[in-house]
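## tool: complex_structure
## caller: assistant
## args:
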Amino acid sequence: MLEGKNIVLGICGSIAAYKSATLVRLLVKAGANVQVVMTPDATNFITPLTLSTLSKKPVYHEYFEAETGQWNNHVELGLWANLIIIAPASANTIAKMAGGLCDNLLTAVYLSAKCPVYFAPAMDLDMWKHDTTMHNVSQLQTFGNILIPPGSGELASGLQGEGRMAEPEEIVAFVSADIKKKLPLVNKKALVTAGPTYEAIDPVRFIGNHSSGKMGFAIADTLAALGADVTLISGPSSQKSKQRSVKRVDVTSAAEMLEQCRQYFTQTDICVMSAAVADYTPVTIAQQKIKKQDAGLSIDLKKTTDILKELGSVKRDNQLLVGFALETNDEEANAIEKLKKKNLDFIVLNSLNDEGAGFKGDTNKITLIDSQLQKTVFGLKSKDEVARDICLKITELVAL
Ligand code: CTP
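## result:
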C-alpha cells in the first residue's frame, strides 16, 4: 500500500522519538519515499543524522538551515506529500495543530498539506487524559486527521497507563490498512494474464510473438494500487511488478496458461486477459533438436484452447471479464464479434494501424467497447496511463 508514496514523517519532542528510526526503516522498506521533518525539540531526542541516513534524504527541522543556507519550503513539502504521519505527536504539537499555530516547520507543513494526516500521540497518561488534550485530539479528528491510538503500559515517567506511542510496526500496519480500506477494489480478487506464450517445437525452438507483457503488468499494478488482491499469470516476460502485493505465476505455453486460469478463475471477481496467447501449437514436440535438412520443413499445428472464450462460457453474473483485441483490419467489427463470442463485459481494442499502439512499445492507443456496445475512444498514451483508463472502467462497472 505504501509503494511509491511520498510520506512526510513528522517527529516531535518526545522520548518515543527513539522509535522513529525503526519507523523510517519500515516505511522505506515498504517502498515509500520518506521525508523526515522534526520539531526543533525532537532533535534533543534523536539525531537528524540517524534519520537522514535511514531515510536517505536530508532531514529538515528549521525553516532555514544555518549550516547549508537552505530554505525549507513548507508549502512545497506539504504539496509533495501523499500522506503525513506525525509520530510521535506530542501534546504541544497536537495543540498547535488543533489551534492552527505554525511556529515551526512541521506545523507549517501540516497547515500547507492537502493529503491525509495520521498522528500517533505519545505522552504521559495524565497529559493524555487531560480535557485539553482530549478536546484537541477530537478537534483534529473533526478536521479529518486520523488518530493512531496510543497503547497502555509503562511510560517514560515510570507511571503505568495510556499514552505510549503505538509501535512502529503497528503504525505501518494501521496506515496501510486505512489506505486499503478506502480503495475502490478492496476485497476484490483480480486475475490478469500478460505476455506472450511460447509453443515448443523441439528442446531449443519455439513459436512465440512480440508481446512484452508491459500492458498486463501495468494493469496488474493498477488493480493492486486500487486495492484488489491480484494474481498475475505471465508468459515469458522480463517485466517486474511495481506493486509487491501482486502474486506472479509464471507459465510458458498456452496450455500452462489455460491450466492456471482454470485454477484461479472460480475465485476471481475481475479477470483481464491481456496475454497474447498463441492460437496454434505444434502437434508434437520433437524430443531431440530437429536437424537441418536439404528439403524444407513443415510443422503440423493444432489449435490451442481459447482461454478467454472458455472463461466467458463459465462466467458468473458477479464476475467481470475483460478481453483484448489486436486488429489490423475491420477493427471495430472484429472486436465486437470477439466481445459477443467470448461473453465479455468489455473489450479493449488496439489497432496495429495506429502508430504507437500494440504490444511491443511503451505506448498504446485503445478503444473500449462494452457489452451495451458503448464505445470510448482514447488518444495515444503511455501503457501506465492506458492501464488507468482500463481500470477506471473496471471500477465503474464494479460499483454498479
Ligand atoms: N485469447 C485467449 N486464448 C487464446 C487466444 C486469445 O484467451 N488461445 C484472448 C487474448 O488474451 C485476448 C483475446 O482472446 O484477450 C483476443 O485475442 P486476439 O488474438 O485478438 O484474438 P483471437 O480470438 O485469437 O482471434 P484472431 O487471432 O483470429 O484475431
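## assistant note: The pocket of cytidine-5'-triphosphate is lined by residues 254, 273, 275, 277, 279, 304, 306-308, 323-326, 338 (CB under 6 Å). The mean pLDDT is 94. Handing back to user.
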